[in-house]
Each structure stands twice: as structure tokens, then as C-alpha cells.
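Sample A.
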Amino acid sequence: MMRPERVYIIRHGQTDWNANGRWQGIMPVGLIDIGHEQARKLAAYLAHQPIEAVYCSDLPRAFDTAKALADVHKLTPTVDERWRELHVGIFQGLTRAEITLRYAAEFAAMHDDWLDYVIPEGESRRQLQERAFAAWQNAVENMSAGQVAIVSHGGTIKLLLMRLFAAQAEKLDKQELANTSLTILQRIPDGWEIAALATVTHLEEAIQAEAAEESAQEENRPQTYF
């Protein structure tokens, strides 16, 4: 059985809660227009890659991003709740400022015990890390596909990468994961390597193409002199 040789790990597109700085956790928040557009650009960017399977969280923002990619490959996303974002419990729906105002003690405790503190009514980052790693193993060790894509959430992706590349954990913890950012892992003889980390080339190329088209239209527009 051929195991995946390349894995594309993707954060979901933008939501209004992203834009407003609200902690989403496992809330079923959907994409806004810009998020759908980001997902379409990502799908177009990866359209010619031989992706044979797409895995995703069941939360709408991840599923809709995954579906845009899966559609161009004529696939159906495989939904797995283990790819969900961190369950932030009592912090869900609040901004950082609101959290520190309402739950100062709990917020401080979370920072003091960053990995193992269980957020009231939620979970710890270690619990998230363990479920994400289990989902990872299922995707890359038990499935016969040459290239696969995983669409998940910022916290989930970061903690998974910190588990897979423990020696780089400090650097990875500081890495920003933008909406629809793309991380590519390549199999090597003794495990995996990061071939690309949190790139947004698909968005940058689209912006450049749009600017070039606007420039061309401007050059072809009849000049009027006053």
C-alpha cells in the first residue's frame, strides 16, 4: 500500500470572528465572502497537484474551505472531528480583552500552564495535540494516497507541527498561520520535513494577477485630454 508522500496542511478561510478577534473554538462559524474567495484561490493554486484525499474538521469554516479544494479534484472531503480547533470553553465568542476582563484568573492560569491547563468547559492544548496527532496518523499511515490535503484550524495545525517537529517547537509556536495558509510536509526516509511553512503564495499571485489586469485595462483605455 502506497502511503502519502506529501501532505498539504491548510488553515481555513477568513470568518467575521477572525476579523473581529473573537475566539471561535468549536463554534460553527462560517466563512465570509473574503474567506470563500481565499478558498477558491487556494483550490485553483492546487488544482494541478495529484491530491487523492482531502481531510477536514467538521466545523463549517474548515469544511467549506476543504470542499472548494475537493471539488476541483472531484473528491468528497473526509470529515473528522479530531481536526477541530481547540475547545476554548468559557472563552468562546469573546475577544482577548473581554476574556481578561471576565476571566482574569482562568486566563492567567492558562498562560501559566500553557499546554496542560484545561479551560473550563473546554479542553487543554495537550488534549488537542493528542487528538490531532491521532488524526494525522490515520491520514498518513493507514490510507493509500500519494498526496493528501488536511484543512484544519490555526491552533490545531500549530500544535500538530510542534508535536511532529519537537526540535523546532519554539519557532513554530511563534509562526503566524494566516487564513488559507499552506504548509507542505514531505516524507523523507526517517520521517517528515517541512517543505513550505505557512505560505500564502496563492493569495499573493492572485493579487499580482489582478493588479496586472487592471494595469492592462488602464493602458488600453482611451485617453481624454482637457
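Sample B, a different protein:
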Amino acid sequence: MRYRTVLFDFDYTLVDSSPGILECINYAMTRMGLPTPDPERARRTIGLSLPRTFVALTGPAMETGGQEFARLFIERADEVMNANTTFLPDARQVLDQLAACRVAMGIVSTKYRYRIERFLRDEGIAGMFGVVLGLEDVAAAKPDPAGLRLALERLGRQPTEAVYVGDSVVDGEAAYRARVPFVAVLSGATPRDAFIPHEPAAILESVADLPDYLGCPASV
């Protein structure tokens, strides 16, 4: 196999939580007296930290409102997010297949870890992952490479021994800065060409193609 350790982004890589995210964005913007964004524009911010999401939707002049946006987003997310999160097609089966190939797996996301862990527990697969890191675990969100470096440290792996799978240029930049091979998936809102500057090891349509790329057979 190419790699025995796989780190995943979460949103738009393994799951689709966009209905919940859009609900939380609209809730926060409305509470702040601001217009709600076009849904497609909002979807393109998935994967950014909440303050960066706010700036992306409102412009640099509104940067000081990022913390209030984040507070309101989280307030609503605690009520609606997990009920509006589902696995992307074939993602659950891919995790089973990689586990059968004895691939060590982890998650590094800008979503809060407690929310990811709740989803994994609800799905009965929390034990599949040797490490789960979210926003509360690092001083700086992606594209800062701190989360990837911490995940590798906890798994006892060197950067060249793992691959990071993600759907956004933020994921690609974080992997590039951490010197971790990056596999881009096109299941999010990022076009293929946008990944090229981050020198991905591969660009796949979705995680459904990951076992073949790794050399993990469907029956082991």
C-alpha cells in the first residue's frame, strides 16, 4: 500500500453538513442584522474558520464582527448541526474498507472536535480513529499546519508516512506547509484547477476512489 496512515478533513470530505452550516450562517447573520448570503456563496466557505467565513461573506471591513458571528453560529450549531450531518456517498463503506486494511485513521478539521466526536459516537465508529482534532485543539486553524503536525505526533508518524485527504485549498495549503502528501477530493465546492498550486499527490472525484489509490483491495 502507498500509505498506512490517512488523515481526513471532515466536512465535504467524509460528510455533508452543509444544510446545518447554512442554517447556522443564516441564523448568525440575521441576529447581527445582516443580509443572509447566497447559498452557493456560503457553501464555498465551508472548511474555513468561522471568523474567516464571516470576512469571506461580508468583506474585510466587517472583520471585527467575526467573533460575534462565531458565537452566534455555535449557539445555533449546538441545536441543529448533528441532525443535519450525513455521510457522503460511499464514505462510510470506505472507512470500513480502510479499517479492514489496517490503515490508521484520523480527522483534522476546523469544526469543533466535540461535535465531530458526537457524530462518530452516534454512528458507532468512534473507535476507528486514532486521533480526532478540531478547532479547540490548536492555536491557529487551517491553513496553519499545527493540527496536522499534532495528529502525526499523537499517531507516532512522520509526515511522509501519512496522507491528508481534503476538499478545499485550505486543506491543501495546510498539508503543503506540514510537508504531508495531500490527496484532494472534488466532493466539495473547490474546482480541480484550484488544487494544483498545492502540489497534490492525487486529485480524486471523492473518497470512494481512495482505497484504489492506496492499494487497499475491496476484500481483504
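Observation for Sample B: The first helix runs from residue 18 to 31.
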